[in-house]
Structure formats: structure tokens, C-alpha cells
Design a protein that fits this description.
This protein folds into 5 domains: about 160 residues, no CATH class; about 160 residues, Rossmann fold, CATH 3.40.50.300; about 90 residues, Helicase, Ruva Protein, domain 3, CATH 1.10.8; about 170 residues, Rossmann fold (3-Layer(aba) Sandwich), CATH 3.40.50.300; about 100 residues, Helicase, Ruva Protein, domain 3 (Orthogonal Bundle). The protein is about 50% helix and about 10% strand. It contains 32 helices and 16 strands. The chain has a 6-stranded mixed beta sheet with strand order 3-5-6-7-4-8, with helices on both faces. Strands 11-13-14-15-12-16 form a 6-stranded mixed beta sheet. α27 crosses α28, α27 crosses α29 and α29 crosses α30.
Length: about 725
């Protein structure tokens, strides 16, 4: 049985072996070899006689297979003969021994010498030259590894050893589902055409039209670049492509190729031709380096030009937004590309995808024998999920699958029925939308909640408005049409200003936890560079990496990057203004969430302030707020002395911020633990004095007299190590 998309008619192994044995036996006899001089020929004589008695239909089938090989790989009939002979040697030990003995292969050789084999098969010098040309390095036989030549590639070709490629046997003998070569297993994903795609999962109409024109040869270009496309989104897209084109898709991710790309690409192209499929190369400009040099990228482009020089069919490329610009080097290397930018799913499409993914996940789990009692909790809202996670189908499927795993683990731990809750999906969403921004940013993790914020009501109302805007912006822009009317400023930007320790970072962390999204603190020192254009490139990489994840980008000390423009008195001013101009443009076109934090709002360019939807000022806490901060500063497990009075602390220490209160509380706990006493007022006073000395602030004599230093002196005089506090 031949697999549906195979362009090769396929031969029963007996027919292939018999025809090859007949061909070699006749050549050996013509060269003067006999069973007496070469006894191994007697081993294949019965097979050759069977082939002589084959009917015309069987012989025609062999001829069609030979012709299909010639057409698929643009090679001569002699080259196709060599492929079939090599496979016959792999199939049957008797034929292998006959070829080895008839060509007088030296002991230790793995295959017959090329020179001896060609001399036996092709007495005519012209035919021998054609066969020799078919074995040159750039020929189809070697480029696509249809045969193997063992030996020194720099030595004489005639002295190399001729062997077959076992992975081709399944294709030529008509197996239903041939496997991939060993070197491609784990690197290439094979997508076979399945049933028609479900509603809402077919290809965009313009992409399908473009593919149809290219596959029918009606377009002048047959190389298509689809972007932006990360791996988890490329998998469902490749499956839809296979269904749409009704051809297999072989996807090779170049980032997974351990060494040179040449062999993996050539084998992928070979398997594509043998299956009548379409090759799809993901991340084609990968060099193995985190920051490839322009020279390395140019070399990759030239390697692609060589690899695709003889490809006449449709070839697909996919890359993420960071690599999309680098693919233009292929055009500079002489390859023409058509470009297709994948539109991000809109709100309605994401909602439908979440619903379909939940349905499919439960159906798949039922087929695999999953927990029968699993159900969806009433608090799961696909509207909220689609509004917060503006991601593609691959991410949505991963979120749902991960959420189900979390619900099952929770059920096993509590020994209760499995329920998929909204919290399971939110936790899965944060995990699956996490992005690698490299060294420029740090993922911020915290457990702060809304009740932990101690701020004036006016500030909390502004933060709540920010949260509501972030939660519903996708619905407003996409469902109500604001995004279609206004093409810029679709992101959500805010600036938090105020002294250090007044709660700016904590407020951002609370918002991230409430929105169930990741938050990245941008390291300004790593982003800024003295080299011209390097700062802009780093910022572009940050924005591009997080654009599809709905993460919060938190720029601390933002005044250094978003500073005011000045008159250009020298080159440094001009370049600084260029950076500010780029940031203005990028902030306006970025449709994610950005929070700027600054202690010096006056140093931020006014053009940035105009683009901010929210400007929230954090002031030092008043007395009633300090009271709440002191109460929240000590966890419930901390032993507190009855003399600790939070009202007195709030009244006594006036000019301190929430951040300082937290540090003082930790310091007081350290002092109390070292002296094996509960945290008392004396410990808090000492920790306060240490914080003031660190800040180099003057303290009144009245406050200074409150600090009790006796526990420290006693510990110093005794010299005994502190004991553990239980």
C-alpha cells in the first residue's frame, strides 16, 4: 500500500530486489564474471531468473518508480539506477555479497569501490562519465543523501565506498507511513492532512489565496515568509496549512539544529519531495548565537541560497518578530520572498478559540482515559481570558492544557473531584505567556494584593481605574471598534511619580497580580548603551518580545531613558534626542502595558506625559496611613511585645515612607531574634536609628534617646553566638 501523498508508485521488496539483481547479474556476466570465478553470483541467480519471468505490468511498475525518482530529484536514469542498486544491497545480504565479490572490494570495505562498480556496470566511457557526474558533491544523489559515499571526501572519488541509504527503503517499497530519518527525529515535525478544519480554525482568506497561486505556479515567487510566528503558534498553523493544501507539511526549527544546518535542511527537502509535501523552516536565520554578527547572518543567507538553488516548489519560512527583519538578508543574497504578516486574533476569535480549546481538551482527555468527573467551575469566563490574554491559538491551547493539569494536581492533593477553576487558568496563563527578554529585564514575583496597599483614597481610585482599563481595553478596542478608528495609542501607559519608598513598585506588582499577567522590571543600565543605535535596538527587542504576551513593562528610574530633549549643542545631545524620539514613537505604537516609575517627574519629557493615560503621584504617608503600614509590616507569626503601640509609632516617626517602615520592621525582628526576645519598642527604635544613619538624616535628641542599646552591648561582651528563637 502506498501512502496517499507519495509521488512514488512503490514496489514490493521482491520486485525491487529481483529487478536490481537481474540488472547487476547481466552486467557481471557481460564483464566476463561467472559463477565459477565469482561464486557469490550464484546467490542472486534465482532472483535474476524470477525477474526475467515478470509480466509487463510488473516491469512497467519498476520503470514508473525509476522515472518518478528521476523527476523528483532532477537526475538521469543512470543516477536512478544507482539509487535502486544501493537499496537492493541494503535489502538483501546475498546481493550485497555478490556486488562486493564481483567488484573485488578489499577486506574491511563497507561497500564496493566506486571505480570498480562503475567499470562493471557501465562499460561505455560515456555512460561511466554520466554515472561519475551523478556522484559529484553537488549532485542530487549526495545533496539529498540518496546514497552514501564513505571515505575521504578529499581523496579520489573512485576509491570511495558506495553504500545505500536505509531510510529510503520505506518510500520505495510503498509503506503506508514512512518514518523520518534518524538524524531528523526530534528536529522535524510532520503534519499530515486530516479532516477539514473546524470552524474558526481555517487559514485567513488572503493567505490561502496566496498559497494557491504559489503552489499552482501562477506566482513569480514561490518562497513565502509568514511572520510573526513563534514555535507554539507555528504548530497549529502548520497543521492548518497541511489541511488547507491537502499536502504534508514538514517543519524544521533551525534553533533546534545542533550543528550545521546544511544536512538537516537537505534531508528535510528530500523527505518533502518523497512525500509530495511542503517544507516549512521555522527561525531560518538562527546561527546558534544569542547575538549573531552581521557576517554570520550573511553566511546563513548564502547557505539558504545554495540549499534552495534547485528547489522549484513552494517553500515556507516562519519567524518571530525579532528575526523577521533579518530575513531580508535572503533577498540581498539573491532570493525573492513574498511576505505575509499574520494578524493577531481579535477579541471574538480569541473567545471562540478558548471555548474550542476547552471543548477539545475535555474530549481528548476522555479519549485518553482522563478523570471522568472533571468539570468547569462557574467562575471560568472565556470573556475575561480573551480580554486579558491577547495571544494566538498556540498559547491558548497551552493555557487550557496547563490549567487542566493544575486542576488535576490540586484534586489529587485534596482527594476531591477535579474542577477546572478560573485560578487554574490564570496561573497557567501567567506561566505560558512568560517571555525571555534576556539580560535586559527581570521577571518580578510577588504576593502583594489590593488589601496590602496603604495609599490615599484618591490614589487607590486612580489605580483601580488603571486596573479596569487594563482589564477591558481589548474589549473596548476590538469589540467596540476604537482600535479600528484609532491606529495609534492602543497601549496602556502610566507614570508613577514620587519619592523612593512611597509604594510605586508595590502598586505595579499589585496590578500585575490582579490582572494575572507577568511583570518585567527593565534594567535601564543594561538597556542604555554608549554605542550609536544600540539603545534603540535593545528597546526594540524588549517591546517585540512582550508585545504578544500582555506583560507589564516596568521602567524603574525612567527619567534616565525618557529624559527631556535639549538643544543640540554637540553630538551627544543630538544622539540623546534621537533616543528620546525613538522612545516616543515606540511608546505610541506599542499596544501593551507600560508603567514608568520616577522620583524626578520634572525631568521626564512632556511629550511622554501627553501619551500617558494615567499619571499617579505617590506622596509620603500621613499619620493614619503610617498606622496601617506599621500594622501590616509585621507578619502574624512575629512575636510582638505588649508594649508595641502602632499608634505611638505612627505619631513618633513622621517623615518616613512605607518602604522605610518595612525595612525598620525587618531590622527590629533581626535584633529581637538575636537577643531571643519578642519584638519590642526598644528593638524598633534601634532599627529606626540604623535606618536614619544609613540615610544620613539628622534625628532629634528626643528620638535618639529612645533607642535602647543594652541588648547589643550584652551580646558583644559575652561573645556567645545567638541561639535560635523558636
Amino acid at each position: 500500500m502506498v501512502h496517499a501523498n507519495s509521488p512514488i508508485p512503490g514496489l514490493p521488496p521482491e520486485l525491487l530486489l529481483g529487478m536490481v539483481a537481474k540488472r547487476f547479474y547481466a552486467a557481471a556476466v557481460a564483464a566476463g564474471k561467472t559463477k565459477e570465478t565469482v561464486p557469490a553470483l550464484g546467490l542472486i541467480e534465482p532472483q535474476a531468473k524470477v525477474a526475467l519471468e515478470l509480466d509487463n505490468e510488473s516491469q512497467l511498475r519498476y520503470t514508473k518508480t525509476q522515472t518518478a525518482l528521476m523527476y523528483l530529484f532532477d537526475m538521469s536514469r543512470i543516477a536512478a539506477d544507482l539509487v535502486l542498486l544501493a537499496l537492493g544491497m541494503e535489502l538483501d545480504e546475498r546481493l550485497y555479497q555478490a556486488v562486493m565479490k564481483a567488484t573485488a572490494a578489499p577486506p574491511g570495505c563497507l561497500g564496493p569501490r566506486v571505480g570498480s562498480l562503475l567499470s562493471l556496470l557501465y562499460p561505455s566511457l560515456a555512460d561511466r562519465q554520466t554515472a561519475m557526474n551523478a556522484l559529484l558533491h553537488d549532485s542530487a544523489l549526495l545533496r539529498y543523501q540518496l546514497i552514501r559515499l564513505i571515505g575521504d571526501p578529499e581523496g579520489p572519488l573512485s576509491q570511495r565506498e558506495f553504500c545505500g541509504e536505509p531510510s529510503l527503503i520505506a518510500h520505495l517499497t510503498g509503506e503506508a507511513n514512512p518514518g523520518l530519518p534518524a538524524s531528523l527525529i526530534g528536529l522535524v515535525d510532520l503534519f499530515l492532512p486530516q479532516a477539514p478544519p473546524q470552524a474558526g480554525k481555517d487559514l485567513p482568506a488572503d493567505l490561502e489565496r496566496m498559497l494557491s497561486l504559489m503552489s499552482l505556479g501562477e506566482a513569480s515567487v514561490h518562497r513565502l515568509h509568514i511572520h510573526p510566528m513563534v514555535r507554539r503558534a507555528a504548530l497549529p498553523m502548520a497543521s492548518r496549512l497541511a489541511n488547507s493544501q491537502e499536502w504534508p507539511i514538514l517543519m524544521l526549527d533551525l534553533r533546534t539544529v545542533p550543528k550545521s544546518m546544511d544536512t538537516a535542511v537537505a534531508l528535510t527537502l528530500r523527505e518533502t519531495r518523497l512525500r509530495h509535501g511542503i517544507p516549512l523552516f521555522l527561525n531560518p536565520m538562527s546561527t546558534g548565537d544569542e547575538e549573531p554578527s552581521p557576517l554570520a547572518l550573511d553566511r546563513v543567507a548564502q547557505a539558504w541560497r545554495r540549499a534552495l538553488a534547485t528547489e522549484r516548489g513552494l517553500v515556507l519560512f516562519m519567524s518571530d518578530s525579532r528575526e523577521a527583519a533579518e530575513l531580508s538578508r535572503l533577498e540581498r543574497a539573491g532570493m525573492q520572498l513574498m511576505d505575509y504578516k499574520v494578524p493577531r486574533p481579535n477579541f471574538s476569535e480569541r473567545q471562540a478559540l478558548f471555548e474550542a480549546s476547552l471543548k477539545q481538551a475535555f474530549e481528548r482527555q476522555s479519549m485518553l482515559g482522563g478523570i471522568a468527573s472533571i468539570r468547569i467551575a462557574p467562575d471560568v469566563s472565556v470573556r475575561d481570558l480573551a480580554s486579558v490574554y491577547r495571544v494566538d491559538e498556540g498559547d491558548i491551547n497551552d493555557i487550557v492544557r496547563h490549567g487542566i493539569v493544575l486542576s488535576e494536581l490540586g484534586a489529587l492533593k485534596s482527594n476531591s473531584p477535579t474542577v477546572l477553576t478560573a485560578q487554574n487558568l490564570w496561573d497557567a496563563g501567567r506561566e505560558q505567556t512568560r517571555r525571555d527578554i534576556g539580560r535586559y529585564a527581570t521577571l518580578v514575583r510577588s504576593n502583594y494584593a489590593w488589601d496590602d496597599l496603604v495609599l490615599p483614597e484618591e490614589v487607590k481610585e486612580q489605580l483601580w481605574d488603571f486596573y479596569c482599563a487594563a482589564r477591558n481595553r481589548a474589549f473596548v478596542h476590538e469589540k467596540w471598534g476604537f482600535g479600528q478608528k484609532h491606529m495609534r495609542g492602543l497601549g496602556l501607559c502610566a507614570i508613577f511619580s514620587g519619592d523612593s519608598g512611597t509604594g510605586k513598585t508595590m502598586a505595579a506588582e499589585v496590578l500585575a497580580n490582579m490582572l494575572k499577567v507577568n511583570m518585567y522590571r527593565i534594567d535601564v543600565s543594561m538597556v542604555a548603551s554608549k554605542w550609536l543605535g544600540e539603545t534603540e535596538r535593545n528597546l526594540s527587542e524588549i517591546f517585540s518580545s512582550t508585545e504578544s504576551s500582555d506583560a507589564i513593562l516596568f521602567f524603574d528610574e525612567a527619567e534616565s531613558l525618557f529624559s527631556k530633549r535639549t538643544d543640540s549643542k554637540d553630538a551627544r545631545d543630538r544622539y540623546a534626542n534621537m533616543e528620546t524620539g525613538y522612545m516616543l514613537q515606540r511608546i505610541e505604537t506599542y499596544d501593551g502595558i507600560v508603567i514608568l516609575s520616577t522620583n524626578l517627574r520634572g525631568n521626564v519629557d512632556n511629550a511622554f506625559l501627553r501619551r500617558m493615560q494615567f499619571g499617579i503621584t505617590f506622596e509620603p504617608p500621613e499619620e493614619f496611613m503610617r498606622y496601617e503600614l506599621w500594622k501590616k509590616a509585621f507578619p502574624s507569626k512575629v512575636p510582638l511585645d505588649p508594649d508595641v503601640n502602632f499608634g505611638d509609632l505612627a505619631k513618633t516617626y513622621e517623615n518616613i515612607t512605607g518602604g522605610q517602615i518595612r525595612l525598620i520592621a525587618i531590622g527590629a525582628a533581626m535584633i529581637a531574634a538575636s537577643s531571643e526576645t519578642p519584638v519590642n519598642m526598644a528593638c524598633i527604635h534601634r532599627a529606626f536609628m540604623a535606618e536614619m544613619h544609613k540615610q544620613q538624616k539628622l534625628v532629634s535628641k528626643e528620638l535618639e534617646s529612645l533607642a535602647d542599646r543594652r541588648p547589643r552591648r550584652e551580646k558583644t561582651l559575652t561573645g556567645k553566638p545567638p541561639r535560635k528563637v523558636h
